[in-house]
């Protein structure tokens, strides 16, 4: 079981000066172990997934919300201490911390069950320190209870890659038995594909990575081609996971009439000019995906357990977090990169 270091010191990585990942924007940090607030869990980190959002934060594609923040929002850990108002968790429990960290609870979006759109929402690794460390604080109300009998590294990618992929799949409005195109095939995509396949969909993967195409076929995709290739049949739905705006018109052209494209990323390069007749006519739909609700998280984790989702993991020691981000940027990661503290 992971334990808080007896030294009382947190060791991890923070975003120093955002910039190209090759220039080393991550810096090693040592800080005093934080104390849990009234509603917090103090976690001894067992594993933390490496998300493309972490790369966007390190490189400055997303403006920093606070200086020298520790990234990482796919946190699996053991509860080492609880705040005084916490119920539902106790010391020794396994818990997960995810991207959505808090919402106001009373705006019209929160009241309507759309807390992912809350204007006051805060995010782990962006607004508060995350899991690229051996210790992390997580608000108990936004934490997930996780099973004890699963490998921590295999659980970590479920907490963002899995949850966001699940929301993107639902936003794509895939009909029962439908034809789904997936553009880009990394951590999130390889999990969303398994949910779609379990629900009876035909899945076509389009990605630049040859290794990712092999993984897609191994997981049950009907075809796997290059990112700009035409799928072998018209698509009812598509999800764009690659942060490449040039692929938006490509995916829209691949849709059948009334098809829907969901763009899953938090960051996207510029979208080229769209032609109404070629890309949007015949009631094709273009949708974005913004964060997730806690209900999305609960629904996905239940689904993942039920279907026995297979998580492909590339583990890295915490000491090599910078290398993990470099490999992610260069498409050298199979499935999901995960940091594991010593």
From TrEMBL:
UniProt xrefs under CDD domains: CAD2
GO terms assigned for molecular function: oxidoreductase activity
PROSITE patterns: ADH_ZINC
Protein origin, superkingdom: Bacteria
EC number: 1.1.1.1
First-tier enzyme category under EC: oxidoreductase
Catalyzed reactions: a primary alcohol + NAD(+) = an aldehyde + NADH + H(+); a secondary alcohol + NAD(+) = a ketone + NADH + H(+)
SMART domains: PKS_ER
Domain Enoyl reductase (ER): 22-339
Cofactor needs: Zn(2+)
Keywords: Metal-binding, Oxidoreductase, Zinc
InterPro entries: ADH-like_N, ADH_Zn_CS, ADH_Zn_typ-2, ER, GroES-like_sf, NAD(P)-bd_dom_sf
The keyword Heme appears for this protein: no
Similarity comment: Belongs to the zinc-containing alcohol dehydrogenase family.
Name this protein carries in UniProt: alcohol dehydrogenase
